[in-house]
Amino acid sequence: MMMNKMREIYGVVNMILFPEDEDPEMLSLELFSSFAKAKERSEEIIKEFIDDYGEDYIAIEPKTPCPVLYGIRSNTVGALKKAKEIVQVEEPIENYCIFKTNQHTDMHIQKTDDIKSMKQFGCYEVVGTVKNKPRVIDGGHMFFYIFDDSGEIECGAYEPTKNFRKIVSDLRPGDVIKLFGGIGEQNTFNIEKFQVVKLNDIEYKNPICECGKRMTSAGKNKGFKCKKCGNKINDNKKVPIKIFRKLKNCQFYETPVSARRHLSKPICRMDL
């Protein structure tokens, strides 16, 4: 008697634990048909995390000569006091101060009704539709356009944003996104973060023949033909296919700490 061998599936779970939370939040779950592929993906996730939040960049201390040893931001005074006890310094601390700040609040961001209303050097929250596939130029900078009924604007994710560019590269024409950022000297919208409003998860392809082979064009306005069995159809319409997208509807994506403005609100504070 023959028995069907059970197919093995391996999962990679990407989770994060935010300060003051008791339970971790699952960012993604990916399934693979082999342990080797799952292991490779887990190593990619670890590398992405190290690139964005690794030990090469220390965000807690100033990068310029000044009397400030370090600074900590928090949602509560209690968390600040606890963090102060955890941080170890190798010189005497003369004094410290707890104060209310506009950092990490998006106070610089203005809501705008459309692209045309935005001005150079302003910072905005704007909704638009992706016009073209993001492209990379020399230096590693990435650009694409968004548009609405009022016009269009070029958007940029620059080399210092590291793996954020990989996320941006997953955008495709037809995606509706909400962008947060500012317009610089070149009139390019510099992205600080974005939220997916609605993904374009439909792709139009040539129909599949009755024999199972995907058909090819028979010429302009001549329908499709099958190279395998010779079958022809006169209909010129391609068929809609639902495709897998790495990006998720309603989810936020942000630049790493090393490339983030002080005023920019991190994703973990978006509901505050």
Key terms for this structure?
single chain, alpha+beta, OB fold (Dihydrolipoamide Acetyltransferase, E2P), three-stranded antiparallel beta sheet, globular
How is this fold's topology laid out?
Elements: E1 10-16, E2 25-32, H1 35-53, H2 77-86, E3 110-111, E4 123-130, E5 135-136, E6 142-148, E7 151-157, H3 164-168, E8 176-183, E9 189-198, E10 202-205, E11 216-217, E12 224-225, E13 232-233, E14 239-242, E15 252-254
Parallel strand pairs: 3-4, 7-9
Antiparallel strand pairs: 1-2, 4-6, 4-8, 5-6, 6-7, 8-9, 9-15, 10-14, 11-12, 12-13
Short description:
The protein has three helices and 15 strands. It has 272 residues and is an alpha+beta fold.
Give an overview in words:
The chain has 272 residues and is of the alpha+beta class. Among the domains are: 10-53, no CATH class; 110-201 and 244-269, OB fold (Dihydrolipoamide Acetyltransferase, E2P), CATH 2.40.50. Helix content is 12%, strand content 28%. It has 3 helices and 15 strands. The chain has helices at residues 35-53, 77-86, 164-168, and strands at residues 10-16, 25-32, 110-111, 123-130, 135-136, 142-148, 151-157, 176-183, 189-198, 202-205, 216-217, 224-225, 232-233, 239-242, 252-254. A 5-stranded mixed beta barrel has the order 4-6-7-9-8. A hairpin with a 6-residue loop joins strand 12 and strand 13 (232-233). The longest helix is centred in the first third of the chain and has 19 residues, at 35-53. The model has no long low-confidence stretch (mean pLDDT 89).
